[in-house]
Amino acid sequence: MSTSCCHSDSAKKVFSFFAHSSRKRFEKKGFEASQKQLLAGLEQVGYRGATLLEIGCGVGHLHQSLLEQGANTAVGIDLAPKMLAEAREWANQRGLDDRVDYLEGDFMELGDSVEMADVSVLDKVVCCYPDAHGLLQQSLVKTRCAVALTYPRDRWFVRLGTGIWNFVLWLLRSDFRTYIHDPDQIEKWVTGDGLDKRFEDQTAAWTTQVFVRP
Question: Which of 10, 91, 175, 193 is the most buried (most CB within 10 A)?
Fold first, then answer.
């Protein structure tokens, strides 16, 4: 079994464990600060009437909120079946089930089963992949207009927290790890595909960027 496959299987177990609590946390507290920045960035570049692709969609609160605010349709992808179960239930309760489809699996392995979208969203997803370059390349292939990213800042306390989390995962015998990729390199990969950066904001731990095709 490949390292990528082991990582994917372990990530599925980790995120499935947190599925129900993720939904409850959002219902109680709403969007995190970095997610509010992501929504502000998308508001600035425009998403109404657009088709959405959210990679690592979790319980669906981001793309479902964008649908409620004027996006046309959405596809959510997640490798954790319990995350998608929560997302489907929530979409049904919000009257959005006819405007959203869900795909279960690792985005990097789904290939042609994923259709192109106007806007792609990767909220705290780049840090879940060892091959950030490959993830971004494949994401951009599926993106017509704009891509929105939220990923960790390269700061000492972020690295410390990541190291502690990865140590806990090691103690639990999980192969899943989180990563802090070079922010400058991430930006070069995206702009190298012909996109322009139109929005950037930061919290203490996260960078949010939105890039648009000219």
Answer: 91
